[in-house]
User: What shape does this take?
Amino acid sequence: MDKYSDKVMDHFLNPRNVGEIEDADGVGIVGNPTCGDVMKLSIKVEDGLVVDAKFKTFGCGAAIATSSMVTELVKGKTIEEALKISKSTVAEALDGLPPVKMHCSNLASDALKAAIDHYLCQRDGVLSERCVEEKREEPTRKKAKVKAKATKKTGKTVKAKAGTKARAPRPATKKMKTARATRGTAGSRSGARKTSARSSRTARTRR
Assistant: This one.
């Protein structure tokens, strides 16, 4: 079993800055698909300084400890200084991490950078690479949402031939129902007349 340092255990058992900043200037959410850890980090910036940072983490003890430590490290730093906080910085501040848990410190520094990117995205005239990529993907995400809403409204989808758009069947209106009933009645009357004519001809032949 890997042994954790006293600092790791302290930040795991007594995590600092747990929660979420409601009026945050930047929010970063990152996850590791391999282990399932997810971190959400929010920051408050005033006059170019990070004055507050909070986190919410779903993960192991090391993930919670690194999240706690990174919020402590970033407070009081400028944006430029905050961007220099790396996975090594976080791990060293915790007096080291087991090799199999180093990805947690990487996740914590990534969450911080994502929050800073979000802050820079909202600041006039500054766009990071991540922000530019998000803006490129935004129209695609909007189209997907519109398509999903349209599917919910129409209900069941109908299979269509290749090259044609599928349309859902329209519900029968009151006029359509009345027209069908009229056609049915007219058909019944026509059939009755034909039967009556045949019966008359048969009667005449017998006479």
Residues 156-164 have pLDDT under 50 and may be disordered. The first strand starts at residue 26 and ends at 31. The chain is about 55% helix and 10% strand. Strands lie at 26-31, 38-46, 49-58.
